[in-house]
């Protein structure tokens, strides 16, 4: 019987990965999403917690595309999403 090492996400206990780097990257993405959500709740009146979580996850999941847009290539935001980017993460309230 083979032994398989699995890595769990610290912020989403339901997610497991076969690669430590993937698990760490996922945790970093969730941390960014949480921090963006908290920042938006503080800066923008009238947004619900669900809306800020969804926007935070959207920005965190697409940070590379957003960085390209911020560096002057705003047209990348209008491109059709690829299969890879269509995968959605279920919003969670991550605990620090």
Assigned CATH architecture of the domain at 24-80: Orthogonal Bundle
How are strands sequenced across the largest beta sheet?
1-2
Radius of gyration: 15 Å
- The secondary structure category is mainly alpha
The CATH class of the domain at 24-80, by name, is Mainly Alpha
Structure write-up:
- The protein has about 100 residues and is mainly α.
- The chain has a domain at about 25-80: Arc Repressor Mutant, subunit A (Orthogonal Bundle), CATH 1.10.10.
- About 45% of the residues lie in helices and about 5% in strands.
- It has a two-stranded antiparallel sheet.
- Helix 1 packs across helix 2.
- The radius of gyration is 15 Å and the shape is extended.
- The N and C termini lie far apart (about 35 Å).
- The model has no long low-confidence stretch (mean pLDDT about 85).
Question: Would you spell out the secondary-structure blueprint of this structure?
Answer:
Blueprint: E1 7-8, E2 16-17, H1 20-43, H2 49-61, H3 63-70
Antiparallel strand pairs: 1-2
How would you summarize this macromolecular structure in one to three sentences?
With 96 residues, the chain is mainly α. 47% of the residues lie in helices and 4% in strands.
């Amino acid at each position: 019987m083979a032994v398989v090492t699995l890595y769990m996400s610290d912020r989403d206990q339901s997610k497991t990965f076969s690669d430590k780097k993937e698990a760490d990257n996922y945790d970093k993405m969730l941390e960014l999403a949480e921090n963006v959500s908290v920042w938006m709740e503080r800066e923008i009146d009238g947004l619900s917690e669900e809306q800020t979580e969804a926007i935070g996850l959207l920005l965190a999941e697409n940070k590379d595309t957003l960085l390209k847009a911020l560096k002057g290539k705003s047209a990348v935001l209008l491109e059709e999403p690829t299969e890879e980017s269509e995968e959605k993460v279920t919003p969670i309230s991550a605990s620090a």
